[in-house]
Fold:
Amino acid sequence: MSFFHKSKESGKVILAPQTGKIVPLSEVPDPVFSGKVLGDGAAILPAENKVFAPISGTIVQVADTLHAVCIESEDGLDILLHLGLDTVKLKGKGFRCHVRSGQHVAAGDLLMEMDLDYIQRAGYPVVTPCIITNLDAVKKVSAASGDAVAGKTILIKYER
Structure:
């Protein structure tokens, strides 16, 4: 196991929201994410349908089309989980939401379910970027690599 697995520094880490393979943002096949236009972080190529809170905080927004969730962490980070690419076009089909705006969540709480088979059959990539969108709030961001277990593996470390 690498140092990217759960540590006592829970305030400075973002956990994997899904079980699967960690993908560097530079390899996400969408220039908005690979070019870090919206922020920095990492992505997961999910192996399971469940999506968990990567950090404790408040749900700021759930997209009407259920393809994205924004969380404000307890220490003021804005985290965007984008479930798949171009999945806004599915208009909510293939997604099931378990949270609402304004709700407090703890790291590891179930946020969403995404039907990976349905989304892939519809022709959309299921890779899920997890990014810090307010980079002015952090000094350094470093992403893990390898395999991830939802709610256990550290996906991103950051310094304030």
Residues 10-159 form a domain with the Glucose Permease (Domain IIA) fold (CATH 2.70.70.10). The helical segments are 31-34, 116-121.
